[in-house]
């Protein structure tokens, strides 16, 4: 009687329940009953309105089996769900999906790693299914939280730990793909989700052994490598996430990176931070690069009172980001980058001098250590400014040159210059040197069509200011910047080092005919250049490099800007420099006097060969030959040696050792030069 009742009850049960029950074998080791599964699938496709009930019943069975630890039946239930999902794409699949996701959640909540992996695999399969209609009510908050937690698994068994972490990363990847493909794609970009997803991926990326594998454009690891290595899988997911980011949600994806790097103190050392931002810059769409740069600048402002090494680490990250962005679109952030960097340059100098003052009586070691750390920050800033500036198109680069020059504190400067009033003379000098070093890097490789474009008055006037002549290093930087801008034919390398050049034609100097604009420039501003060189030769703290740069300045002016009138002016300037050394009204040391004499010899030797007037060349050669025999310390090859015997005075020297104005005028006059002005001694004019 009891058996008969059971048979009747089974016959009265709904058909979908009987079909579901039939797919489960008596022994779970036998696996899913395929024939009955085909029947269930056919029934679900034929009667899609029953899908929600099938899903609910399968969920009920699975929940019961999970509680009873009947994991074999759990596996069969999930396999059946996966097959039904793949087979059914009708409108009625929506309620079935809710049951499916409820079962996946049950598996993820269990403490059994195998079930967590099983649930993840099913979710990933579901994520790859394109539904016919979007779901406007479904949310994935639980899955984001759960998969993120799995990414941080700390299971005592390393293999299980890796397995769970890989499952968590694949789950996050599934959530991203599913939500991005849905109409309601914006939900995944909400900060509460990104604050879980991004740190989870970065946590796993940190575990990679070979950092170099992350630093380039997106790589293509094989499928096996990605599945086995959490770091590679996390990196691939991170790239995919960033690649899908749009204008409105880019910042939400990037900000958690800063929080992660701050929390784990990954700015010093900053290898991981650099690699992260390289991945970001290569993965996002090029037109959004400026968003990332703005975020880095903002974070630098936030961390402006952190240790020097942390700030240097952030600046280096900025450099790497700029290096990649410069190849594409930097957008409207150009001036903002420079403004922020210059502000932090001043802050760093302030900190350096503050440490020096506050530790006047403390241990030397800590003081010098802090100072050297701040120098690291300053060098990183200069390197970033230089690299950024040198990669800009010429029209933007000229604006940046003006912008930086406007920040240099000089006498009579505008209100735009950096405020160094509280830094004192030492701080002001440090700021001047670093801004000029930045400017030197920005001007490197800059080719202006005319010298007027390269050296407009608002740029030239502060560059040649007396405020930038008070220090040997400052004068060197000013001259090197002038060389960058004047040398339009790359002749500077051929002129390196001050020497008597036997045959200038061997240098293969490149030059063009002097343009009308260049002639006009020299009429307006030539006196400024001459005065700067003249006063630069009178400074007591000049070293060999100063004389070398002064020689190069004269030579480049001759090549690029000298017509017949300018040649006469340059000869007058050279004779005036010789008089500085002979008369010595400024009480210069003997080394400086001999250095000026050597400079004049090297330059007139170069000039005479460039204009190729035989009588002029002969006079210059004769003086040089006499000096080599009687006063070799008047020649650069001797005076700039380490051990050079200096004369006690120059008063007793014969005229044969000097370049004479009347001889030069006579030689040039015979070749058609207008030499009347040679008889008028050069006097520096205040412009």
UniProtKB/TrEMBL annotation:
<dbReference type="InterPro" id="IPR016024">
    <property type="entry name" value="ARM-type_fold"/>
</dbReference>
<dbReference type="InterPro" id="IPR051851">
    <property type="entry name" value="EFR3_Homologs"/>
</dbReference>
<dbReference type="GO" id="GO:0005886">
    <property type="term" value="C:plasma membrane"/>
</dbReference>
<keyword id="KW-0472">Membrane</keyword>
<dbReference type="Pfam" id="PF21052">
    <property type="entry name" value="EFR3_ARM"/>
</dbReference>
<keyword id="KW-1003">Cell membrane</keyword>
<dbReference type="InterPro" id="IPR049152">
    <property type="entry name" value="EFR3-like_ARM"/>
</dbReference>
<dbReference type="InterPro" id="IPR011989">
    <property type="entry name" value="ARM-like"/>
</dbReference>
<keyword id="KW-0449">Lipoprotein</keyword>
<keyword id="KW-0564">Palmitate</keyword>
<comment type="similarity">
    <text>Belongs to the EFR3 family.</text>
</comment>
<dbReference type="GO" id="GO:0072659">
    <property type="term" value="P:protein localization to plasma membrane"/>
</dbReference>
<protein>
    <recommendedName>
        <fullName>Protein EFR3 homolog A</fullName>
    </recommendedName>
</protein>
